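Researcher: We plan to redesign the surface later, but first we want a full-length starting point. Tokens attached.
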């Protein structure tokens, strides 16, 4: 227990250090002294404006999105009992992309806040459809039906998105960077619209971690211990929808965080989801911050989307996991 609590403390310190580095470096490297001055004695200078209006929102978005996606992945793997599952199974990525593409095709570019809500509604609607399809038939909701429904809806929505983009060059230009999963262009105003959903999802995951832990042992065992598994699954899916939907609306479909980070947490603390969930949150925040920092220097003077970097890191990890599961 003490070692795990110490690990959480170290994790918080690592996230804080990555946060400071993310604010300090970029195309223009700003000394830490000036970074601190931007918060205690703001004078409107160019460096202070860059820190407060560009880099601070970007770093905060990276922390919240990293936490949300990794916790959503942990909960998804627990309820599906599938170590290769991720929040993408609920089709929130493609649901957000589909509705946003249709919106841009019909109305063109609108305000960032409007597009944020369009993406959030699309992510939630797609997740609800997957949940309803996974609940149909004999036996109600099951992990296998949920995964099959998610795969089917994902393929359908992905094809529709590509079809609309082929016919709309303007929509393609507007969507290109978002589809890659980018942390740039966000603002504190945009963050203020979605952080309540992220906070609710993170709090719910921690509060129900004991029940999620029991459910990960198997539905029959959980029922034998007096757990109402249907309600816990419903609550877990609501948590995943809040976390992944808000993340996708804010930063686009950033892949592999929800899949890979829970495995790193599991390696550190074992199979207890009461610890996996908080460790996943800290690891997800730190790794997405590092991915975003790396995205600024891989191809200078251009910046890559953070989603590209996470894909470059996550794809080999996915291959390793798939091979390990096969063995």
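Model: Full-length starting sequence:
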């Amino acid at each position: 227990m003490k070692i795990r609590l110490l690990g959480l403390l170290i994790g918080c310190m690592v996230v804080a250090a990555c946060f400071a580095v993310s604010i300090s470096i970029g195309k223009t490297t700003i000394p830490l002294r000036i970074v601190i001055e931007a918060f205690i004695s703001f004078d409107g200078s160019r460096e202070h404006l860059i820190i407060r209006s560009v880099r601070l929102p970007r770093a905060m978005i990276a922390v919240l999105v990293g936490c949300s996606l990794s916790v959503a992945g942990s909960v998804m793997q627990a309820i599906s009992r599938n170590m290769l599952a991720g929040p993408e199974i609920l089709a929130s990525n493609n649901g957000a992309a589909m509705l946003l593409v249709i919106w841009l095709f019909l109305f063109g570019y609108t305000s960032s806040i409007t597009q944020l809500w369009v993406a959030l509604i699309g992510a939630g609607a797609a997740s609800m459809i997957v949940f309803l399809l996974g609940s149909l038939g004999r036996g109600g909701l099951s992990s296998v039906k949920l995964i099959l429904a998610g795969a089917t809806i994902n393929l359908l929505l992905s094809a529709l998105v590509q079809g609309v983009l082929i016919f709309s060059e303007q929509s393609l230009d507007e969507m290109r960077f978002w589809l890659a999963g980018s942390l740039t262009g966000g603002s504190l105003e945009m963050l203020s619209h979605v952080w309540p959903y992220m906070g609710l999802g993170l709090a719910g995951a921690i509060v129900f971690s004991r029940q999620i832990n029991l459910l990960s042992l198997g539905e029959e065992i959980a029922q034998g211990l007096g757990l109402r598994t249907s309600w816990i699954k419903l609550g877990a899916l609501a948590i995943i929808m809040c976390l992944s939907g808000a993340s996708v609306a804010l930063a686009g479909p950033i892949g592999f965080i929800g899949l890979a980070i829970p495995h790193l947490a599991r390696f550190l603390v074992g199979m207890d989801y009461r610890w996996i969930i908080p460790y996943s949150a800290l690891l997800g925040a730190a790794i997405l911050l590092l991915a975003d920092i790396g995205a600024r220097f891989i191809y200078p003077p251009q910046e890559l989307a953070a989603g590209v970097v996470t894909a470059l890191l996550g794809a080999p990890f996915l291959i390793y996991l798939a091979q390990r599961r096969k063995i």
